[in-house]
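Subject: sequence -> structure tokens, single chain

Hey, anyone have a minute? Need the predicted structure for the following. Not urgent.
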Amino acid sequence: MATLHDTSEKDPELVHDPTQDQFQAQGQDVGDDSKGTSSGMLSSRTAGRVHSDVGDVLARHTSVDDAASLASIDRPPSEEEKLPPAKIYPPLSFPVIALLMPASIFGVLARLGLQAITTYDGRAVFPLAWVQAAGCLTMGFALGMKEPFGRFYGPLYTAVTTGFCGSLTTFSGWQLDVFESWINGIASHRDWFRDAIDGIGKTIFTLAISLSAISFGARLATLVVPRVPTLPPPPRPVRYALSALAVLVYAAAYPAYFRLPARFRHDATAALLFSFPGTLSRYALSVALNARLKLFPLGTFAANMLGTALLGALQALQSVQHPHPFAPDACVVLKGLADGYCGCLTTVSTFAAEVAALDGRRAWVYVAVSWLCSQVLLAIVLGASLGAGHVSRQITCKYV
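Reply:
Had a minute. Here:
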């Protein structure tokens, strides 16, 4: 198997960060075997085996009984994939962070594009269903390909999972969609019972399609991995050039916002500006908090709750009753924060992977607590404004 270079001559960007082990050790039970099994190793409740990656757990339809062991989902491949030290990247190393920049942009563009082409009169499936299905399918496949990613170039794995899939799917958008069903935000001619059916339908269908797509993607990966050739890792100049190019791609979003016609700002370019900050916030919360709780991943939960509450506030600001107090440029920024920052701060792909990997009780608790807390937050932030008559059920912002 080709290696990046001799392990005795480590590249400064590849030096293993001991804090990574500290993060992974949090929340683990003491008393693993004498070989010091890595904290990310997952114990299956069905056969008592130890799994080295979530993709294997999903493909085998097994589960784990400790949410802290799922902390490796968002992190680059590590010792769990039996990689040599020279190929292990610390979670917060520059190559990992740099590749999150273009991945976030491409994820947002894919989400907005899918929503645009699946929004039409007479549609049978709501647009976000396509978004969540595509992101979760890709996420499941990438989880199953984690070891090949690691042997080639570890930061690419985090770019695909945390960056692209996490930015393509949106937990806050899903929860807002459900909440708007309760209040009949599109002013459809129906009674309260149909409002409830619509909200319940969006909840159940999104969960079903997301979990199915995750498992299907992981299963596909098991068919592909044996046929993937062993590629030599990119040399140092190529790695450095890739990091520099990634930074330049995100930097290009700023002139694109000002140079492209103004009509593109609320549709796409404003969201691109806020995409990477949202992804970086979610990733930082994941690295810092996901290993701290055994019941469910605390970092993903915190990111989804924070993003949902913020999206509710932005929705209220964009729906203030006429005369609207915001100028078009301010409305564009609000829309960009909603689609870009909140859309990338929250994720269904990681959430679905965690739910699918957890055992039954923890999975149900995680889903129920996440869904209920999100709806309560939206009721407090957005529902209170609606009840007071300060905002409309439809967006009143004028973007041009």
